[in-house]
Design goal:
Structural class: alpha/beta
Shape: globular
Strand content: 5-15%
Strand order of the largest sheet: 3-4-7-8-9-10-12-13
Length: 374
């Protein structure tokens, strides 16, 4: 079914402007007659953040920004879906064009700027989903987390995050605090130590206040791959002290690797994702893993376009992985390819679970030359 769907839609989607193609893909998923996902290999189940993931391959935030098709994505074989980024009030984001493919490099640049229908529209959809049979916040048919961000013109951005925690805790499997998008001016300043400590203190306090009626809601922090190691030290120490449940490593990068072949498109402003991000994102993942010391799990994101790339993320310290840009160039069959590669790796090593691979190469990765250095 997935193969037929791809053969039918792939030429059309790639002939369109990237943002128009994305909107069309969302529309098609709303109406595609997708069967339930096949039961997966038990060795790929993961317990993380107090949740049971049927498999460790997730759809990253940015695809289903407004929670329009999370169940369709789960039926395509994802073990979890992260919707968003969601802002409290609707906002249009940055002017178009704001999404660019680097076909020669299999990368994407975006400067979308948290375009969002706002919390009310998304909450309505997720509340309806939570009331549906066999679903809900982390229910039997897969895990749906939300990624939240501040409005561009918010007077108090931390208050935006607090408000979103309060509103979504009851209908989300987990909540990701996104302070790492490069496309909202000043947002990444919240990764600095004093600001981050205040943010996480208020967010965790909000989570605890609503837990009585919402139940436990894991809170994750999404960081940029562009952090210096000194700043990463602070970020991890504060995340640990404020008892977040995990980190997502990482977002898009403002860097432009010298090896990029599409030099013209590479000059566009915005965050770079896809294959060119893999070395940097994996290095920051490994650096995070050795600093976290097993206190909470990590989600590896950035540049995953093959089973081998996904396996490298686990060995660098990820307990779960997320995809998005890789699907633009590899298609939906990438999800099954990754799961098959992980099962094969476990079979070769005669292991019973992915947990036995997590972080196996982290120390070695952190000893390598910095990505892009000469």
């Amino acid at each position: 079914m997935i193969g037929f769907f791809e053969r039918l839609t792939w030429p059309l989607l790639h002939a369109l402007d990237p943002e128009d193609a994305h909107a069309l893909a969302i529309s098609m998923l709303k109406f595609a007659p997708l069967p339930p996902a096949a039961r997966g290999d038990k060795r790929l189940t993961v317990r993380a953040f107090g949740l049971n993931f049927p498999n460790p391959v997730g759809m990253a935030a940015g695809f289903d920004k407004n929670a329009e098709v999370p169940d369709a994505l789960l039926r395509l074989g994802f073990g979890f879906v992260e919707v968003g980024t969601i802002t409290p009030l609707p906002q249009a984001g940055n002017p178009r064009p704001r999404l660019f493919r680097l076909d020669a490099d299999e990368g994407v640049i975006n400067r979308l700027g948290f375009n969002s229908q706002g919390a009310d529209a998304v909450l309505k959809r997720l509340a309806a989903r939570a009331r549906a049979p066999a679903r809900g916040a982390g229910g039997a048919e897969g895990i749906v987390g939300i990624n939240v961000g501040a409005n561009k013109d918010a007077f108090d951005r931390v208050a935006d995050y607090v408000r979103l925690i309060e509103r979504f805790a009851a209908v989300a499997s987990y909540v990701t605090i996104n302070i790492s998008s490069p496309n909202t001016p000043g947002l990444r300043d919240l990764q600095q130590a004093k600001a981050l400590d205040d943010l996480l203190a208020r967010v965790i306090d909000a989570r605890e206040r609503v837990a009585q009626h919402a139940g436990p809601t894991p809170v994750l922090l999404k960081i940029a791959p562009d952090l210096s190691l000194d700043v990463l030290d602070d970020v991890v120490n504060i995340a640990r002290s404020r008892r977040v449940d995990g980190m997502i490593v990482g977002n898009t990068t403002l860097a432009r690797p010298a090896a990029l072949r599409d030099a013209v498109t590479a000059q566009e402003a915005g965050g770079l994702s896809g294959r060119p991000l893999l070395p940097l994102a994996t290095r920051i993942l490994a650096e995070s893993y050795v600093r976290v010391e097993g206190v909470f799990p990590l989600v590896g994101v950035g540049g995953i376009d093959s089973g081998a790339a996904a396996l490298a993320k686990f060995r660098a310290g990820a307990s779960l992985v997320q995809l998005y840009s890789g699907l633009v160039f590899r298609g939906l069959s990438l999800v099954a390819e990754i799961k098959a590669a992980l099962v094969a790796a476990l079979a070769r090593a005669r292991l019973d679970s992915l947990g036995e691979l997590v972080g196996a190469d982290a120390a070695a990765v952190t000893s390598e030359p910095w990505p892009g250095s000469t």
